[in-house]
Predict the structure.
Amino acid sequence: MTKKILLGVTSGIAIYKVLELCSRLVKAGYEIEVIMTENATKMISPLVFETISRGKVHTDMFHSGHHEEVEHIEMAKRADLFLIAPTTVNTLAKIANGIGDNLLTSTALAYDKTIILALSANTKMIENPVTKENIKKLQDRNFEFINSKSGMLACNTVGNGRLAEPEEIFERVEDYFVKKDLKGKNIIVTAGPTREAVDPVRYITNRSSGKMGFAIAKKAFQRGANVTLIYGDCKVKLPYGTENIKITYNDELKSEIDKRFDNTDCLIMAAAPCDFRVEKYSKDKIKTKNSLTLNLVENEDILKYFGMKKKKQIIIGFAAETFDLYENATKKLKSKNCDYIIANDVSSSTSGFDVDDNKASIISKEESIELPLMPKIVLADEILNLI
Ligand code: CTP
């Protein structure tokens, strides 16, 4: 069923970003109804919002020929989500103190589901203790916040106060409608490659992009889990809402997991730690010569270490294979004491490394399920369903 969003627009200078947000929401299939404050209409004409939102734009509570007094109660009833972007500190203060002096604030008073407030203001106004108190008050109730960001502000200063980008606000709306079936679960997801240094300027690594792990972390957060994402050198955009920890080497990866392991419900090991390290690290740069032989020795298997250590934890490992996928993955399931192995054939160019799709099989002691080729973000949900 189409989700209905009530979009409240106040007179922050970042109002221009909300047009882009509105357009994205419409394209994604949401039905939008807009309420603008009177000051907001001085910045952008309601006609622009009407055209972009393809819905009604309400502005005035008391104009003849309309019955907006009743309308604000009706709007509050029919919306699935009330989003206010930008939210000025003035509107924030009114809502926090139960003031309904215009159509937007009185609709907020009449709304009994979650309201998401995307804040924006000058740094001093955002950091004013009164604003902080108002935020605190609403956090304890049915309100969620999209915090303002730091950067160059319209008042020509650099600081906290910028409205979050339309993409982030859009994602928060999408998240809101995802069922929170992993609420209360603590999940560690590892992603991307690690490195092993050869000398001060060279290292060995592998082709892992981190896309699979990042997709799992993002989805796990959407589904309500407390997520720690421990990741190597990746070019993928970091998810928000997760605790993100950057590592470089295998021992850092292991120790970051170890710090949290006792308190973890599930470890998903999508990272590709280096299997080998050089036997002897050269502290001086190795000089160029005709040929060079590096002697590599095996690294500790981190997944196996935690497989042996596990008590209540569910452990999900990956297996990147180029042949005998099922046999090799089943061996890894046993030798590393995992609950599940997600096995990929990485020899295909349409799935596996550095692409957005993946074709995987889920292997457990009981069964093996072969999944079709699908976007990594969809596979992420399949993997999380195991928890
Ligand atoms: N893994 C690990 N520590 C390592 C190597 C791998 O924790 N030193 C984990 C990976 O994160 C993955 C799983 O083990 O979840 C399987 O990794 P993969 O590279 O497929 O297999 P390997 O165990 O390295 O075995 P092989 O390279 O022989 O296939």
Observations:
- The first strand starts at residue 4 and ends at 9.
- The pocket of cytidine-5'-triphosphate is lined by residues 269, 271-273, 275, 299, 301-303, 317-320, 332 (CB under 6 Å).
- The chain is about 35% helix and 25% strand.
- Residues 15-27 form the longest helix (13 residues).
